[in-house]
Design a protein that fits this description.
Number of domains: 1
Radius of gyration: 20 Å
Structural class: mainly alpha
Largest sheet: none
Number of helices: 7
Shape: elongated
Order of helices and strands: HHHHHHH
Distance between the termini: 63 Å
Strand content: under 5%
Length: 192
C-alpha cells in the first residue's frame, strides 16, 4: 500500500497545500505583530493581479495567445496561482467581518486545492500506473495483493480524471464572488 501511486503523490501535494495555509496564517500573524495590518489590504490587489495573470494559461490553451510553449504557461499558471492565493489568503486574514469575503476565500482555497491536485496528478498518475502495470506484467492471474493495488491505482486515476468538470465551475463561481466583493469594496469605500 505504501508504494501505491496515491500515497506517493498525494502526500507531497498535501504537504505543499498545507504549507500554503501555514504560510498565509504565519504572514498574517507577523503583519499583526508588527502592526502592519494595512499591508494585507493591498496584498488582495496584488494577489488578484497574480490570479488574473495565471489565466494566461487558459488563453494559451484556447489559442487566444498564439506564441509560447504551453508547458511554460502551465508552470506560470501554477506558480502565479499559488502566490496569488497566498496573498489573498493573507489579505482575508484571520478576521470574521463579513460573509462574502470569507465565502470567496473558502472557495478560492477549494479551487486552489482542486487545481493543485489536478495539475500535478492527472498526467503523472496515468503514466505511472501504465508503466507500473507493464513492469509488473499484471494479468488476470496476478495475485490478490497486486490486484488490490491495481484497483486503487486505477480508481485514483479515474477519479482525478474528472477534476476539471468540478474545477471550471468553481473558478467561474469564484470569479463571480470576487467581482461582487470588489464592487462592494468600491461601493462602501470611504471616498473622503
Amino acid at each position: 500500500m505504501w508504494k501505491s501511486v496515491l500515497i506517493q503523490r498525494t502526500l507531497p501535494l498535501t504537504a505543499s497545500y498545507l504549507l500554503l495555509i501555514v504560510a498565509g496564517v504565519a504572514l498574517d500573524y507577523l503583519f499583526h505583530v508588527a502592526h502592519l495590518e494595512w499591508v494585507g489590504r493591498y496584498l488582495g490587489i496584488v494577489g488578484f493581479a497574480f490570479l488574473l495573470l495565471s489565466f494566461g494559461y487558459s488563453a494559451r490553451k484556447k489559442k487566444l495567445i498564439t506564441s509560447g510553449p504551453l508547458k511554460l504557461f502551465l508552470k506560470f499558471h501554477c506558480h502565479a496561482g499559488w502566490i496569488g492565493t497566498l496573498m489573498i489568503f493573507v489579505h482575508s486574514g484571520i478576521h470574521f467581518n463579513a460573509i462574502l469575503p470569507w465565502a470567496a476565500t473558502v472557495l478560492m482555497m477549494i479551487v486552489t486545492a482542486s487545481g493543485h491536485v489536478g495539475q500535478h496528478l492527472i498526467n503523472k498518475l496515468k503514466a505511472e500506473v501504465t508503466l507500473k502495470m507493464k513492469q509488473l506484467g499484471l494479468t488476470a492471474e496476478a495475485d490478490d495483493e497486486l490486484q488490490h493495488e491495481r484497483y486503487w491505482d486505477s480508481l485514483t486515476v479515474k477519479t482525478l480524471g474528472q477534476w476539471r468538470s468540478m474545477h471550471r465551475p468553481m473558478v467561474t463561481f469564484l470569479i463571480a464572488l470576487t467581482t461582487i466583493h470588489i464592487f462592494s469594496i468600491f461601493f462602501f469605500w470611504n471616498w473622503r
